[in-house]
Amino acid sequence: MSAAADTTITRMSNPHLDQPPVRAGAALAGARTAALVVHGRGQTPDYMKAVLDRVALPGLAYLLPAAAGNTWYPQGFLKPLPDNQPRLDQALEAMTVMVGRIASAGVPADRTFLVGFSQGACLLSEFLARSPRRYAGAALLTGGFIGPDPRSPNGSLAGMPVFLGTSQYDEWVPLSRVEETAALFRAMDADVTFRVYDDREHLVNDDEIAEVRRLLSS
Predict the structure, then answer these.
(1) Rounded to 5 degrees, what angle do the CA atoms 103, 106, 160 make?
(2) Contact status, residue 159 vs residue 145, Cβ threshold 8 Å
């Protein structure tokens, strides 16, 4: 069996690729900049579309993938990695496919932003930790790399701006893990901005919206 056939079978069997991504903002074809925008557990792309409405930068092209069953992987993100398989690997593959679609439309990685909230932020953190390269920037809102164990740098993010925001009281994402993620990305040569808030709710607050707007405008 050819490599191309193997790839086709893998993608056909990936439930996160069974539904087309939602598009928002400017048309992707011909866009100067784009963003891959990833929702959290129990959400849909509509949640992140509402976030983008608050960011209010319609001139960018946005691609918003949808997780199968509204969940990228089944267990908590601090569980042992095998506990979240095969969905975790399928979710990471979906991110690779989405970045490839953006590139195929003419927007290279260095003009593509990554934006995620909660489980989506965890997924994108893991994506960057495993497959580092310089994107235009990343906004990781209440999330961190996946798995129970500490991580060592694996390549360079080459000065890429990364914003991490979280609450010290968040019940889903411990502050310590976001701190570890900020330290990991600094060790991978990212230009990290890290903010800790006092929110009691699991949400995207107004200061984070301003930081996302600043990042996407840079």
Answers:
(1) 55
(2) no
